[in-house]
Amino acid sequence: MPPIVVEQVSRRFRTFDRRRGILGAVRDLFRTETTERVAVADLDFRIEPGEAVALIGPNGAGKSTTVKMLAGLLKPSSGRIRVGDLDPWADRTRHVRGIGAVFGQRTQLWWDLAVVEALDLCAAMFGVPEDAYRRRMAHFEEVLGIGPLLRTPVRQLSLGERMRCELAAALLHEPPLLFLDEPTIGLDVAVKLRLRQFLAEVRDAGRTTLLLTTHDLDDVAALCPRVLLLSEGRLLHDGPLPALAARLGGRRTLQVELRAPVEGVDLPGAEITSPTSVRIPVDAHSSVPELVREVLARLDVVDLRIEDPSVEELIARFYEERRTG
Amino acid sequence: MIRPSLAALRIGFRQVFAYRTEVVVQLVSASIVAGLNGSLWQAAIGGQETVAGVPGPEMLSYVVMAWVAVTFFATRVNEEIGLRFRDGQIAADLLRPLSLQLNCYARDLGRAFAVLGLQTIPLFAMCLLVFPVQLPERPSTWAVWLLSLLLSHLANFGLSFAIGVAAFRLHNITGLTHLKATLVSIFSGALIPLELFGERWQPLVYALPFHSFAHTPASLFLERDVPVGGLLAEQALWAAALWGLGAFAWNRAAHAMTVQGG
Fold first, then answer.
1. Best interface-test mutation with A: which of B89, B95, B169 has the largest number of A CBs within 10 A?
2. Which of A85, A92, A98, A323 counts the most CB atoms within 10 A of its CB?
3. Which value does ipTM take for this structure?
């Protein structure tokens, strides 16, 4: 398992600025204007063999760009990436032998063909020996439940079924590195749980370095001891999720729905968000049970729930914290 | 490199069989075009003894065999790459331990082999029944012809691949695709026998690579008085040059590449 070393990596790209209207379109024929945008800037990090790392951040933060550069699909505009002794982009055909990748929105299976054809292809592409192929397939059929799907054309699979097959395809050659770009996007809760459980097993087997991007903090909590937080192409935080949350002052809130409107609530940090609902930050109180007891004693409650901060909220908090020093 | 290529070849072959109706419809449509093409030329040649210096019956055989060659060497790899670039699927191709060019070639060759069995050979058999095609006298000619077809396909692939990867920079290659299709049909001999181009055009016709796509295999099949080895070598040279063009285009494109859509 090679370590991943990223040094001062930036990726810029050009976008065309189209002029408006018909006249603009004609003028565009002769001269185009472009703007250079920065997808990621000055990334510096190192991932050790066997780590499980989550890349989080809002849309457009540069998560996918980073994964694509690590997978060798994109060339960094500047800086250096090393996976073991390979440069992912320059040595792509050798580099990809050692990686498995699932890009949530794309498929590496063949749309028109049965799943098993694509898996056969992957096995042949990566030179998986016959007996190892049979053994791994038996394992995937058991833990991912893909047995009944094998003869179905890919176009007829549901998203959840397809993602399970994608994972099997990505792991068939037992790559030491597994890159997952939003693997749980659009999946229902049951499928998400199943995938997480499967990935946790892969991680615990200790033969695979795991890097995933996600918007779902439950993915992170279940799988990744380490979090890289990106925003606007820059690395804002590198460390465990609890540390990130703690650093931002743990923004879990208690949402309370009331039977009748209230004028004010005499609890620290309480905020009335609509006539019959109140939001109370959990961290301003000694413990959740105590806060709940307090709330139930004072208010006529219809419903209660605890909400975790979203990635977006964490980042918003992060900026707030930095501004206020 | 060989195992991954064979795997890609097998996928290309398998994909042709994915839709049964499509296989039948393609054969029917190819037969209609071939029948029409042959009949038109049969009528045009009429009873003339020679057309542009070529004996009438040989000319008819030429047009039939040129069309048979088209079914084999025609490739849509440019459109395929363009589409895969558009929806970002190209990422999956780049995750294979194989250069994009070799990957696409192996897949397209697999497709061409399936097409050989499902279209080229049935079409050829049908043409034999309908038109008085001159068959080779030497058995070795069949092997030469097949080799020549393979080289036609390779050369055409090289050019199509170059156009396909141009999509990475140009983002829309519909115009280029049409231009190439037009040049191939005009200058390959598929639409018009190359002998019919006037004196002044001959140097241009033979300076372009396209004549080696359909004209060369047809000439070899008809056992014309031509240097067999020389023609095959010329085809191989064109194939190598166009492969090089594809490699160059890919090299340029890869630096600038973005994987579209998130």
1. B95
2. A92
3. 0.82
